[in-house]
Input
Amino acid sequence: MKTYLALILNDIRLAFRQRVVIFFNYLMPMGFFLIFATAFHAEQGGAILQTVTMVSVIGILGNGLFGAGMRAVQERETNILRRYKVAPISPMPLLVASTITGLVVYMPYVAFMFTLAHFKYGMAVPPNLATVFCFIMLGLVAVRSIGLIIASTVNSMQESAIIVQIVYMSMLFLSGSTFPTSMFPDWLLTVTQFIPATHIVTGLQGILMRQETLAANWQSVLALALTASIGLLLCVKLFRWEKEEKMKPAAKLWILAVLVPFVALGAWQTKTRENMTKTKILGREMQRSRTVLIRNARIITGSGRLIENGGILLKAGKIEAIYESNTPEPDAVHAVGVEAAGKTVMPGLIDMHVHLGGSGGLMTDMKDYDVEKAMQRELAAYLYSGVTAVRSLGDLLDMALKVRHTVNSSERLGAELFTDGPLFTAEGGHGTEYFRALPAPVRKQMDAQMVRIPKSAADAKAMVDALKVAGVDGIKAVMESGAGGNHYDRMDPAILAAIGAAAKANGLRLAVHTGDVRDVEDAIAAGASSIEHGSFRQRIPDADFALMAKNGIVYDPTLSVGEALPQFAAGNLELLGRSLVQQTAPPKLLAATTKGINAPETLQSRKRLGEFPVDWAIAKDNLLRAYKAGVTLVAGTDAGNMLVFHGPTVQHELQLWAEAGIPPLVAIQAATWNSAKLLGAEGRLGSIEVGREASLLVVDGNPLADIHALEAISFVVFKGERLVRSELFDQD
Output
């Protein structure tokens, strides 16, 4: 032990006498720190975490590769090691002393950097500071092992410099320590998984940003520990005391041996893509951590309040402060300033009735239709349109849950998805003939995934219980009995009541599709959370609306689909001409719909839809009387049906509401705050209040004076990130 201690003290003393040690452990990292802090505007929120991560890893690489690798070669070449050989001592104390010296030299800089980041740039002291320091030290020991292996296998300072530079530059530029890897294409991101420094960067980001533990990063921790151990053992085996002792060129393959844990880890990550997914999510969270100040805007809070001229401070993805007057200058709150004079800010809109995977148009080649990609693109289209959350009613269960995870985890950008799973209907009920009319390849994907047909109350309860376990957000049932030329078997009200009871017992909301007054009354009796569509053909009695208001049952009139289906039946494609539809709908879909509207195979569908009765006066009157009766309103569109396109249709829905006599402020509240409450997400969505998620729609003009201004989108903020909307459709 005395030998180890003496060598460590001597090594530390010699290290601090060398300029190269001071440069790579203090001056160079500090230079990078100041450059990155300035370039990333580290004072503006979470950018300081990115700066600290990147500079920490740069320091680890410099300490490990230059401080260990090149210094060890220098000591051998200048015959310093020969003096120890005659002592005599084994290589192990020298290698241990070198490793501990690296820690003693570098960790004070880390402590200083964290202190500077806290006091100068406002970085909060990590609650898991011990975990942060432990991970940095583990990374340092692993990289020093790589540096020492390089030193053990080269025969000169020139060879050492070349190999160290190659390894250093590769890790520096491909690990995320200089360029965020979240901006890399997938193929390059895959390559980075084989680089040790990548896992140090990703692990440190997760520990700093999410307060992750070492256990949460066990794969990276294990690979680093194995590299450190293998490197130390190989260094003992390959240790040389004198420069005259030469290694064969093949000995340099030992450098690859020490990287075996990361080769294995990279291969595993290539298969699972877990770390690549985490990299993308962390990159997005970093963007959302910025501090932004929106100034001089009209603010519709969503909960019924209007601020004519104010400001909103966004920090770490949430609303930090709201200013009703005297909005500060951006520099005073260390924020990026966004001038919004003449603009209106409101919560992101919510479409409460969509069918993801239904295109809204005519698809000429269903064989190649990729449902998952279609759903992902549709959620991107919603976000492009300022719709930051949607409720999908009647989904491909497994696919919807998969897409929900992908988007809600921020792996991909898209509106937050709430899925009410497959729809409950009767045998031969509304929806079943549509699914069975699809081409065989698509029907095979959709059939059992989209429909539940309970035979009894007990059957209904078992199905609801199973869907709760699967992870749905709610339940949808169909009572529509049809009219005109559409004849459907109607669900037994007793089964609907059983579905309602089971949904309530499982803490799930129940949405009920209705077509006439009888359907509405059965839905009310079954304890529905929301009535979908109401009726387009019968006047709903005032007593029913009074009962809905009393029982807290929400009304979702979906006027958009009531307008669109008759237009499609008539061959009228006017709805395709809306600017936001042209921007968001796939060009091939628009072209196919325009071309195929009069095709023979389309005419039969148009004829059937032409028999669907819509009395526009009744539909609008039902909505207006529901509002006057005090029924809570939400805005859904039934997007996915013909000519009801995913993305911008909720704006058009609110235009139809205004035509029906609903005040614009009430309509906007229905599409924000009321919808968030029905989703059970009012604690974070649907209103502009301190502490809520910073998901905002900013439009030019005043939608309270002209509801059409909702389509004049200036920009969209999603969870604190100001989106580059043009890039939403280019995420693959």
Observations:
- The mean pLDDT is 88.
- The two ends are 57 Å apart (CA to CA).
- The chain has three domains: 2-288, 292-346, 349-727.
- The longest strand covers residues 306-315.
